[in-house]
Amino acid sequence: MVIAAVFLLALPAAAVTFYKDVAPILQRRCESCHRPGEIGPMPLVTFAQVRPWAKAIRESVEMRRMPPWFADPRHGRFSNDPSLSPAEIATIAAWVNEGSTEGIKREAPPPRKWPEGWSVSSPDLVLTMPEAFPVPANTAIEYQYLILPTQFTSDRWVRLVEIRPSNPAVVHHAVLYVREPASEWLRGAKPGVMFAPPATDFDAKRNARDTKADILAVYTPGAPAATWPAGMAKHIPAGSDLVLQMHFTSLKETTEERTQIGLLPATERSTHRVITLQMGVDDIVIPPGARDFRLSRSGTMPRDALLLSMFPHMHLRGSGFEYQIVGTGGRVETLLKVDRYNFSWQLAYHLQTPRLLPAGTQLLWTGYFDNSANNPRNPNPAAEVRWGEQSWEEMMIGFFDVAVPAEMDKRTFFIRR
User: Fold this and answer.
1) Which of 125, 194, 318, 365 is least enclosed by beta carbons within 10 angstroms?
2) Beta 385-386 vs 133-135: how paired, if at all?
3) How many Cα neighbours within 13 Å face the side chain of 66?
4) Which of 316, 265, 39 is closest to 165 using CA atoms?
5) What is the pLDDT of residue 11?
6) Is residue 33 very low, low, confident or very high in pLDDT (cuts 50, 70, 90)?
7) Which backbone phi and psi does 260 adopt, to 5 degrees?
8) CB atoms < 10 A from the CB of 4, how many?
9) Rounded CA gap, 40 and 43, in Å?
10) Nearest to residue 70, comparing CAs of 302, 242, 274, 312?
11) Where are the strands (E) in 253-370, listed by range?
């Protein structure tokens, strides 16, 4: 009997290359920020641009520092989660470990076409600051306000809003409000001229800050355009003005900034109106050196609404944030848990499936603060920290977008049945 010996030779695994394997991942996950003219510190579009950063990219994705995303995966599913899959991380690591080879260019995906000057879509209407704002060097700058008349003669439903700074390095954040025709808020301000209430006039500053006007959009570092699901849109009544609140960050040299606002109208009938709500704490006193200080605010929903997204806001001592529902018997359900809040990447978290919040639902928002020397962003661990608009002071606000029937405005929403 003849016994045939068969030897199986393992075929070598195909080499991981930039064009075939890595470029598609960068297009999906990175180019929104890392392309010319965007907030990423370097473009990551071509092989020549990516190759010098190969090891840094591997470290950033393996440590899950990039793309920035801070939601605890045990709570909620989010439509805008940019996190790389384990397979994508493994591909990038293998590419770097094998020498970061270029590969065959014809295997690359077609270049992704991005809108010129805007993040996801070219707007139909653009409003621009009439004049550039001079940002002085080495100084604290009070919140600035700018009234932008829309001159809308009919109501508008908007499905996309993008706030676009010309110089993102000096824009800490921007909030865009809708001032309806009957509102007396900031009526003493001259349209088209940037102004700030006097720093020593606390009442004027509070009157400017405390408004019931609806928020149209918020800009923070790395924030994409604000968009909403099909059939849902923001509403701008005829004759309304837009009010732009700007928080500028001073640099070592004098510069200037001129922000643009892009709007896209809804292309279909809006069955739901999106309104932005918030709960937070103003009476903040964080002791020196406190490592795990927490502040909470609770409230109940006045009407039924669909929860769409959540956006936590704190400053440099902020370390974590939780959005929770308190049910019967004290049972707590966590909607969003941010464990590693990062002041430099203030993100909104959009639910994959909108969540019904019936009238009477008890909400509990909790912010966590690290005022110790263990916090590398802490400007002064020895300071007692109170509420304030500047970054070395603190805020604790939980913004959230909800959808209500299109005929219900924000004022009506708060009339409890």
Assistant:
1) 125
2) unpaired
3) 20
4) 39
5) 40
6) confident
7) -115, 155
8) 4
9) 7
10) 312
11) 255-257, 260-265, 272-281, 285-286, 293-300, 305-313, 318-326, 332-338, 349-357, 362-369
Using DSSP's 3-state secondary structure scheme, residue 335 falls into strand
- Global pTM reads 0.90
Query: Which two three-digit tokens encode residue 232?
Result: 């849902």
* Residue type (1 letter), 248: F
Instruction: Residue 107: name the closest of 178, 197, 47, 171 by CA.
Output: 47
Q: Please give the Cα distance from 57 to 80 (Å, whole number).
A: 21
Residue tagged 């900031």 (tokens): 186
- Predicted pLDDT at 68: 92
Q: Are strands 396-405 and 125-128 parallel, antiparallel or unpaired?
A: unpaired
b/e map 332-354, b = 16+ CB within 10 Å: eeebbbbeebbbebbbbbbbeeb
Q: Judge whether 346 and 311 are in contact, CB under 8 Å.
A: yes
Query: How does pLDDT run across 54-88, given as a tens digit for each residue?
Result: 999 999 999 999 999 999 999 999 999 999 999 99
The amino acid that residue 214 corresponds to is D
Nearest CA among 175, 195, 167 for reference residue 313 = 175
> From CA 163, how far away is CA 40, in angstroms rounded?
17
DSSP characters over 100-161: -----GGGSPPPP---TTSSSS--SEEEE-SSPEEE-SSS----EEEEEE---SS-EEEEEE
Which range is least confidently modeled, 56-60, 248-252, 300-304?
248-252
- Give the span between the Cα atoms of 282 and 386, in whole angstroms: 9
Residue range 306-362, pLDDT digits in tens: 999 999 999 999 999 999 999 988 899 999 999 999 998 899 999 999 999 999 999
d(CA 410, CA 276): 9
Q: How far is CA 2 from the centre of its chain?
A: 72
Main-chain phi, psi angles of 120, to 5 degrees:
-125, -25
d(CA 245, CA 175): 5
Could you tell me the end-to-end alpha-carbon distance of the chain, in angstroms, rounded to an integer? 92
Measure the CA–CA gap between 294 and 272, rounded to whole angstroms: 35
